[in-house]
Amino acid sequence: MATATSERSRAAVTATLIALPLALLAGLGWFWLSGGFADDDEPAATGPVTVDLSSDTTVTEQTETVCRALLANLPTTLGEHASRPVNPKSAVERAAVWGDPAIVLRCGVGKPATTAGSAGQVLTINGVSWLVTEGNKVTWLRALNLSVAIDVRLPAPYNVGQPQSLVGPLSAPITDSVPAAK
């Protein structure tokens, strides 16, 4: 009788030693298949972003100098969004890009904005006044009263809510690098 009980005990221990690792592997497999090991954030795109500067008619040497100074002072991250390379090469000294989808700052594009008009609302963020124009898939912010035109394109999902958290860190480089309009 003692041997039958000890054989049952050994069989139970053996079954447990086999079942536990299998259950653990099955649980880990299910967790992996349901995306449990994936990062919460998708990997950021790192490739170049093509920036359109075609609305520019003429760029003066002063505009190029101001834009180079501004881009040299811009942060390498905007919120949690890392900077990305810019295409074409002609845009490198007049545009900056962060994140995916791309947040784009353009410098020296068109004439500087001096009045808000009726096209949108005006927000002052850390000393820089912006004309905000919201669309379905993008929000445009155009800096007001500067000697050189500056605009920022915030695509969805960034255009939901207030743009202060993303545009705020740009204010100090803008006020340090871009003279006010005369």
What does the model show?
The protein is α+β, with helices and mostly antiparallel strands and 182 residues long. The chain folds into 2 domains: 1-38; 49-177. It has 3 helices and 10 strands; from the N terminus they run αβαβββββββββα. Helix 2 (61-73) packs across helix 3. The longest helix has 32 residues, at 2-33. The termini are far apart. Pfam families: DUF3515. It comes from Cryptosporangium phraense. InterPro entries: DUF3515. Keywords: Membrane, Transmembrane, Transmembrane helix.
What is the topological layout?
Layout: H1 2-33, E1 49-50, H2 61-73, E2 77-78, E3 81-84, E4 86-87, E5 95-98, E6 103-107, E7 121-125, E8 128-134, E9 138-143, E10 150-155, H3 164-177
Parallel strand pairs: 1-4
Antiparallel strand pairs: 2-3, 3-5, 5-6, 6-10, 7-8, 8-9, 9-10
Describe the main β-sheet briefly.
8 strands, antiparallel
**Count of discrete alpha- or pi-helical segments spanning 4 or more residues:** 3
Molecular shape? elongated
Estimated structural class: alpha+beta
Fraction in beta strands: 15-25%
Order of helical and strand elements: HEHEEEEEEEEEH
Low-confidence stretches: 38-43
Number of domains: 2
Lateral arrangement of strands in the main beta sheet: 2-3-5-6-10-9-8-7
Keywords: Membrane, Transmembrane, Transmembrane helix
Transmembrane segments: 12-33
Pfam family, one: DUF3515
InterPro entries: DUF3515
Quick recap of the structure?
InterPro entries: DUF3515. This protein is of the alpha+beta class. It has helices at residues 2-33, 61-73, 164-177; strands at residues 49-50, 77-78, 81-84, 86-87, 95-98, 103-107, 121-125, 128-134, 138-143, 150-155.
